[in-house]
Amino acid sequence: MDLRPIWPFLLLSVAALILQNADFAVATDHIVGANHGWNSGVNFTQWAANQTFYVGDFISFRYPKTGQYNVFMVNQSGYDNCTTEGALGNWSSGKDFVELKEAKRYYFICGNGMCFNGMKVSVKVEKLPAASPPKGAANSKSGARSVISRWQTGGWVWLAVAASAALALAMPGLLV
Ligand SMILES: *[C@@H]1O[C@H](CO)[C@@H](O)[C@H](O)[C@H]1NC(C)=O
Ligand SMILES: *[C@@H]1O[C@H](CO)[C@@H](O)[C@H](O)[C@H]1NC(C)=O
Ligand SMILES: *[C@@H]1O[C@H](CO)[C@@H](O)[C@H](O)[C@H]1NC(C)=O
Ligand SMILES: *[C@@H]1O[C@H](CO)[C@@H](O)[C@H](O)[C@H]1NC(C)=O
Ligand SMILES: *[C@@H]1O[C@H](CO)[C@@H](O)[C@H](O)[C@H]1NC(C)=O
Fold first, then answer.
1. Average per-residue pLDDT for the chain
2. Do 114 and 52 fall within a single domain?
């Protein structure tokens, strides 16, 4: 059997699969405090209220690596009382990425007493919504937007595959 007429189709299918899977790995990185970063004088409660966090997203803490600031993942008591005993994790690179792996509430505080100055943030992480985007999601929060763009990218890739398949079937000589 002569496979030549369909090789562009096979090639594109493989490319589409790779692209789709790569696209799935794309997660939102929520930069704590946005352009203010991890700093005192930022209301992180307000910052967190303005975004949607989904499982698989990242939260990242950006600050000068001078030793003044750091990041501790704690539980609710640690958050409420600004204590780092029994911390679930700690970071101090100045560019700390933390993956939000579970659908639960996460608590982060700064050590060195800075937590008492308001350097604490708690985020509620939600399960990824079902694949098809809900109506009106485009004007909702950032998480929903990224789901839509995933869906759109997938749609375009499959359209390209379908078009090339049709072309290959209609005019086998053209593509080889
Ligand atoms: C941060 O903002 C929230 C909501 O606007 C407010 O309730 C809270 O008191 C503020 N926190 C600080 C430390 O200013
Ligand atoms: C929340 O996000 C909107 C749109 O991105 C922005 O206009 C607004 O200033 C933000 N509010 C806060 C408190 O960050
Ligand atoms: C920490 O805060 C919690 C409230 O979330 C309180 O019940 C608890 O007694 C406090 N723990 C310590 C060690 O201060
Ligand atoms: C948080 O962790 C501390 C230290 O491990 C523990 O004593 C406390 O009971 C925990 N609090 C919650 C709400 O899980
Ligand atoms: C920070 O985390 C490391 C493990 O990653 C641990 O060995 C260390 O005790 C932690 N430091 C504090 C102050 O909790």
1. 80
2. yes
- Residues 14 and 69 both lie in one domain: no
Ligand 1: centre distance to CA 45 (Å): 6
Residue 131, token pair as written in the block: 């694949």
E-strand spans in the chain? 29-31, 53-54, 58-62, 71-74, 89-91, 95-99, 105-109, 120-126
CATH label of the domain that carries residue 113:
2.60.40.420
Per-residue pLDDT averaged across 60-75, rounded? 97
Q: What lines the ligand 2 site, CB under 6 Å?
A: 46-47, 50
Domain shared by 44 and 121, yes or no: yes
Question: At residue 9, does pLDDT exceed 90?
Answer: no
Which range of residues forms the domain containing residue 18? 1-22+153-176
Residue 76 CA: nearest ligand 3 atom is: 5
Query: What's the length of the chain?
Result: 176
In terms of pTM, does the model score above 0.90?
no
Among 74, 76, 77, say which to mutate for ligand 4: greatest number of ligand atoms within 8 Å of CB: 77
What's the structural domain count of the chain? 2
